[in-house]
UniProtKB/TrEMBL annotation:
Residues 1-28, 489-518 are annotated as: Disordered. Residues 1-13, 489-503 have a biased composition (Basic and acidic residues). It comes from the Archaea. It comes from Halogeometricum rufum. This is Uncharacterized protein.
Length: 646
């Protein structure tokens, strides 16, 4: 009960015999990129997804404090001597840079920083101490687990581990006002967690890797046997001493103790408060402009006095995202193909997904694609397409040259609940697509992926993996081409390249027959069904088969194919060497010869499918698409026909 909460006198780690399993701690699970940008993305994503269902925006304020005059009172409040004893012991057990570097930094007189992320109009840390669902379980008790559901990207999940990654002491505190309280809960709720390696203190005692900062009353509960959350007056008074107190409204204030740039665990080149503010401001604008521009999210910064505001009123001041916002907001009155600089074109196209396995859900709907022609003076993110759904976070900026386009434009692919224009409400189909793509997001929320996504494959019907891939490649390429070029045919385009083939010969297989056909020229029928840049390699997928009118039986055939980089006037710039070729179909074979791909089919000469990949190029190599585009073509071939006896 709240009235029973007791202020802790130390940090609690469970004692364990030395022979039990030793844990390396939460931070050894390298599931996410350890950069300050990733930290901002993950924290804002979690907070944004926890917004209450009302007409008010979610507000987030990041405050960076460098503790000097207040350090002594802070250390007293957080039971510093107890915490640092365990951290020092754990540092001796941790592999690689991290704890020991931070302890040495403090011992050398380094400034102790704390970062507070204060959120408003969010749900707060819901849940009791023992349940397996709810925010408390996913964020506090078992960080790294997930309570994701429905049309959000998950309140926490694996991404919540970035909180401890950004702490030099691997320690985080939470002060929360709950939107909905359970019986015997009275906000605020205060609790702290530390995740360090299993360690031995100077007295010879071994301890588990998980530390708790909470009311010792939980030690007497047989369902807990560890400290529990502090509530009401005890929590409020301690939060005040920790500089963690917050407004009396729903939401959570999270404190990272010993805040650092997680990409520099050795503490050799930590950013200044203004540098931290630059990264936070840029990342918030670049990845959350959909939510910010429509008034769903506000971000405020106060980094040791450096104050900034990223809101609906200021977001268009950011050159890197202003063209995307204009593109997204101008869709309603846009034409179907682009004109001059500043012109916006938009179209919706059908997108097929799969129904859930446990219930029948919509399996198709529309998504919205728009493009804006860039002005000559615009430089930021030119030629990129912002991919996002209803949560309002850009999951990825997809380079247009990876799809074969070198034009100067900014694009948006608005899916799911982000598709409707103006005051239109999302349809059931929009919501189904939103939930489908939400489950396609990896822990870092930086892509939509189907492969190696067991949760997606376990939830949706067969074929769901291809649906994800098709949206980002084939469908996006096809409909972006229509926006950029209208409906005119483009010679050599990667979607359906020129059929510039005149096979040299067709010949008899040499079997003993009454009559054999003469050798004459003949075409093939073929199509490229997908092309893209994957891992700095051009890749083409498609099929090819002989297309003959002569009477007789095709007994074998072969083709030789190559790739060529094209100038924008459709002249060939250079050949692109083929490195790999995979051929499907009965009795089909593929090999690479002199930078070209060779497909051979015999015995059962049917249609052959192929996947062809070029050699890998550097990021700046123009043959990845900046020259113009890449063409796939057949340069040689032969067909063997055996005449059928009458």
């Amino acid at each position: 009960m709240p009235s029973d909460s007791i202020r802790p006198e130390d940090w609690w780690f469970k004692k364990q015999p030395p022979g039990q399993s030793h844990s390396p701690g939460l931070l050894q699970k390298k599931t996410l990129d350890r950069s300050l940008e990733t930290f901002v993305r993950e924290v804002l994503q979690n907070i944004n997804d926890a917004g209450l269902d009302n007409d008010e925006p979610v507000e987030v304020t990041f405050r960076l404090h460098e503790l000097e005059e207040t350090r002594k009172s802070f250390e007293d409040a957080i039971c510093w001597n107890s915490l640092i004893e365990h951290v020092r012991a754990a540092a001796e057990e941790q592999d690689g840079p991290g704890l020991q570097d931070y302890v040495d930094y403090l011992d050398d007189g380094g400034t102790l920083r704390v970062l507070v992320a204060e959120e408003k109009n969010t749900s707060g840390i819901q849940g009791d101490e023992v349940s397996t669902d709810g925010d408390y379980a996913a964020l506090v008790r078992d960080p790294g687990s997930s309570n994701k559901s429905g049309d959000t990207g998950g309140r926490h999940g694996l991404g919540s581990s970035v909180l401890w990654v950004a702490s030099g002491l691997q320690t985080v505190l939470f002060d929360s006002y709950l939107n909905e309280e359970l019986p015997e809960q009275e906000s605020p709720r205060l609790v702290g967690r530390s995740f360090v390696p299993t360690h031995q203190t100077p007295d010879g005692q071994w301890y588990d890797n998980e530390g708790w900062f909470g009311s010792p009353t939980g030690l007497e509960d047989p369902d807990l046997e560890r400290p529990e959350s502090m509530w009401a007056d005890v929590a409020e008074e301690l939060a005040e001493e920790l500089s963690l107190s917050r407004p009396n409204e729903a939401g959570t204030s999270t404190m990272i103790v010993g805040f650092r740039d997680p990409s520099d665990p050795s503490m050799e080149d930590q950013p200044s408060p203004s540098d931290v503010a630059d990264t936070f401001e840029r990342t918030a604008a670049d990845y959350f402009w959909p939510a910010i521009s429509r008034g769903d999210l506000k971000v405020h910064l106060n980094m040791e006095g450096d104050e900034r505001h990223i809101t609906g009123e200021t977001i268009r001041d950011h050159d890197s995202v202003a063209p995307f916002i204009e593109c997204y907001e101008s869709r309603a009155d846009a034409s179907k193909s682009l004109g001059g600089p500043g012109d916006v074109a938009s179209r919706e196209f059908e997108y097929e997904i799969r129904s859930r396995k446990d219930e029948e859900t919509p399996s198709e709907g529309s998504v919205s694609l728009a493009a804006r022609r860039a002005y000559p003076y615009e430089e930021d993110r030119v030629g990129e397409i912002a991919l996002f759904r209803g949560s309002g976070m850009v999951v990825q900026y997809k380079p247009g040259h990876h799809l074969g386009f070198s034009e100067k434009f900014h694009g948006v692919l608005a899916c799911g609940n982000a598709r409707p224009v103006g005051d239109d409400e999302p349809t059931d189909e929009d919501s189904a697509i939103d939930k489908f793509l939400a489950m396609a997001e990896p822990p870092a929320h930086d892509d939509w992926v189907g492969e190696k996504n067991d949760e997606l494959k376990g939830t949706y019907e067969s074929g769901c993996v291809k649906c994800v891939k098709r949206l980002k490649k084939e469908l996006l390429r096809t409909h972006l081409s229509k926006l950029l070029y209208g409906t005119r045919e483009r010679s050599g385009e990667s979607i359906r390249p020129d059929r510039d083939i005149v096979p040299k010969t067709k010949r008899s297989r040499g079997r003993e027959t009454e009559t054999s056909t003469p050798t004459v020229a003949t075409p093939f029928d073929w199509e490229v069904t997908a092309s893209n840049v994957d891992g700095n390699r051009w890749a083409f997928e498609g099929w090819v088969e002989p297309d003959v009118d002569e009477q007789g039986e095709v007994v074998e055939w072969s083709v030789t194919v190559e790739m060529a980089a094209m100038f924008e006037d459709n002249r060939e710039a250079s050949k692109i060497p083929v490195e790999e070729i995979d051929v499907g179909g009965t009795s089909s074979d593929g090999r690479v010869e002199d930078g070209r791909g060779v497909i051979e089919v015999e015995e059962n000469p049917e249609k052959a499918t192929f996947e062809i990949r070029s050699e890998a190029f550097s990021d700046s190599d123009p043959r990845l698409g900046d020259v113009g585009e890449t063409k796939f073509k057949i340069v040689d071939g032969s067909i063997g026909i055996e005449e059928v006896s009458s």
